């Protein structure tokens, strides 16, 4: 299991140097979980008990509206984080669903263990605060994009956010993410790449 934890440690050490005692605390606080393609790690109405670091695989976070239509809000791949911060930190039930669409492995930390880790490791405290702040900024930008941008602009934003993962995302997931039907997305995608080649 230490090899799996080393992936997380290497990721964190891209931003901050971690002494051996801090690395040991990380190994103690995070537990390995495995999921099969199609499994949910969080369902609407549940409490988000874990903050999850993706070792491998792919996840989508989505919400279901009153007409039972799914709206993809976020995707997560290797070395990304996935969870519902509001439910995780405030101990309230979630409105979100998180499903893996590839076989996946994550390192998961409970709220209590995350607090313990951050109290013991001040070098990680500022790093996690920065990542949380950046996550909130991305969520804010996404809301503005959905409200104030046309579909082509939203698709361009999507390409800038997930450029290396296009081949792993089904078209219907991308269509849902940018807020259009799969049929419209097929037309939009074709027109976008035709214009890109022409320019």
What this model shows, in words?
This protein is α+β, with helices and mostly antiparallel strands and 199 residues long. The chain has a domain at 2-121: Sandwich (Jelly Rolls), CATH 2.60.120.10. Helix content is 50%, strand content 21%. The protein has helices spanning 2-12, 20-29, 85-90, 111-120, 122-148, 151-161, 171-178, 182-198; strands at 31-35, 40-42, 50-56, 59-64, 70-76, 81-82, 97-100, 104-110. Strand 4 and strand 5 form a beta hairpin. The longest helix has 27 residues, at 122-148. The radius of gyration is 18 Å and the shape is globular. The model has no long low-confidence stretch (mean pLDDT 90).
Layout of strands and helices, then pairs:
Elements: H1 2-12, H2 20-29, E1 31-35, E2 40-42, E3 50-56, E4 59-64, E5 70-76, E6 81-82, H3 85-90, E7 97-100, E8 104-110, H4 111-120, H5 122-148, H6 151-161, H7 171-178, H8 182-198
Helix pairs in contact: 2-4, 4-5, 7-8
The portion of residues assigned to helices is: 40-55%
At CATH level 3, the topology of the domain at 2-121 is: Jelly Rolls
Tally of helical segments: 8
Taking the alpha carbons of the first and last residues, their distance comes to 49 Å
The CATH class designation of the domain at 2-121 is Mainly Beta
What is the count of β-strands?
Answer: 8
Beta-strand share of residues:
15-25%
Q: Supply the helix-strand structural class.
A: alpha+beta
Q: Largest beta sheet: what is the strand line-up?
A: 1-8-3-6
In CATH, the architecture of the domain at 2-121 is Sandwich
Q: Mean of the pLDDT scores?
A: 90
Radius of gyration: 18 Å
**Stretches where pLDDT falls below 50 for ≥5 residues?**
none
Describe the sheet with the most strands.
4 strands, antiparallel
CA-based shape? globular
CATH superfamily of the domain at 2-121: Jelly Rolls
Order of H and E elements: HHEEEEEEHEEHHHHH
